């Protein structure tokens, strides 16, 4: 359902269309009286009609973009409702494929200072096999350094990457790489490409993906933080268990020490010693006989 400024824009276009139709009808009515005026007016109306068609297509594109942004907002809300990192990454990947129509899409994240590929999807929303999960490191590193999106409609002919061996080796065509930035720091990138067709991505696609990436970065960062907290909690629980065992051992040793110091235990100890001494003497007497 289209609403707001976009709906008003389309309504104005429709109104102009009706006005032109009325003028054309008027021209037809007076055509016999002044053919020259009719000819000039007809040419003018055709020109206006062409411009109007361009306006109508622009309005439709605007409306489609608004719907895409709404979809991004809904997906972002869904992302931020989950703290499971794998689930968040899969949802991000599926959304990128849907927004861009990319052949492949990857998420690369920094983990302990090293850039790791965490998720890879293809246009069938399936996990990309490990042997096929290759990308242009030149483009990824440039995106991370600049903290800005990089879009190339034909990587093979892009002068910026003419020395990039990975692009030539993989025969890359369309590539879009967008940084994931949180609190001014790049935590990774979203990378999408097509190895067959050039011009798959445009500036509208870049703007959509960048908007989505801003929300996705927050969701990923939250999930990573939750994952670290959960790991720390598990480690703390293990340490607590070890401490509890140590406390139990110390408590048993204290209890044993208390028992040993009782009068009853001391009398018992003396009785055992006396019996051992008696047994020793008995054995000595047997041996001398």
Structure description:
The protein is elongated, with a radius of gyration of 39 Å. It is 65% helix and 13% strand. The longest helix has 58 residues, at 203-260. It has seven helices and five strands. Strand 4 (174-182) and strand 5 form a beta hairpin. The protein has helices at 5-30, 35-79, 85-100, 137-146, 165-170, 203-260, 263-288, and strands at residues 104-111, 114-122, 150-152, 174-182, 185-194. The chain folds into two domains: 5-72; 84-226, Beta-Lactamase (2-Layer Sandwich), CATH 3.30.450.40.
Question: Can you give me a brief rundown of this structure?
Answer:
The protein is α+β, with helices and mostly antiparallel strands. The protein contains seven helices and five strands.
Q: Topology of this protein?
A:
Blueprint: H1 5-30, H2 35-79, H3 85-100, E1 104-111, E2 114-122, H4 137-146, E3 150-152, H5 165-170, E4 174-182, E5 185-194, H6 203-260, H7 263-288
Antiparallel strand pairs: 1-2, 1-5, 3-4, 4-5
Number of strands: 5
Give the terminus-to-terminus CA distance.
117 Å
Tell me the count of domains.
2
- Report the CATH C-level class of the largest domain: Alpha Beta
Which series of helices and strands comes N to C? HHHEEHEHEEHH
């Amino acid at each position: 359902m289209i609403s707001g400024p976009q709906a008003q824009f389309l309504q104005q276009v429709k109104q102009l269309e009706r006005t032109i139709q009325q003028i054309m009808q008027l021209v037809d009515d007076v055509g016999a009286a002044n053919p020259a005026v009719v000819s000039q007016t007809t040419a003018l109306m055709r020109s206006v009609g062409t411009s109007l068609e361009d306006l109508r297509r622009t309005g439709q594109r605007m409306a489609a973009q608004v719907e895409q942004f709404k979809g991004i907002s809904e997906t972002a809300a869904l992302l931020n409702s989950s703290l499971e990192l794998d689930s968040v990454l899969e949802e991000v990947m599926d959304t990128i494929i849907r927004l861009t129509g990319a052949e492949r899409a990857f998420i690369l994240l920094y983990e302990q200072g090293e850039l790791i590929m965490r998720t890879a999807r293809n246009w069938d929303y399936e996990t990309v096999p490990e042997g096929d999960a290759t990308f242009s490191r030149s483009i990824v590193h440039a995106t991370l350094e600049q903290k800005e999106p990089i879009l190339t409609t034909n990587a093979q002919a892009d002068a910026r990457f003419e020395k990039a061996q990975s692009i030539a080796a993989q025969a890359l065509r369309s590539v879009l790489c967008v940084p994931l930035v949180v609190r001014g720091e790049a935590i990774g990138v979203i990378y999408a490409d097509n190895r067959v067709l050039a011009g798959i991505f445009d500036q509208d696609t870049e703007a959509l993906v960048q908007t989505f990436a801003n929300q996705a970065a927050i969701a990923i960062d939250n999930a990573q933080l939750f994952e670290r907290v959960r790991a720390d909690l598990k480690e703390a629980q293990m340490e607590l268990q070890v401490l509890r065992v140590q406390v139990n051992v110390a408590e048993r040793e204290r209890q044993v020490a208390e028992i040993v110091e009782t009068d009853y235990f001391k009398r018992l100890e003396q009785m055992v010693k006396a019996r051992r001494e008696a047994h020793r003497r008995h054995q000595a007497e047997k041996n001398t006989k």
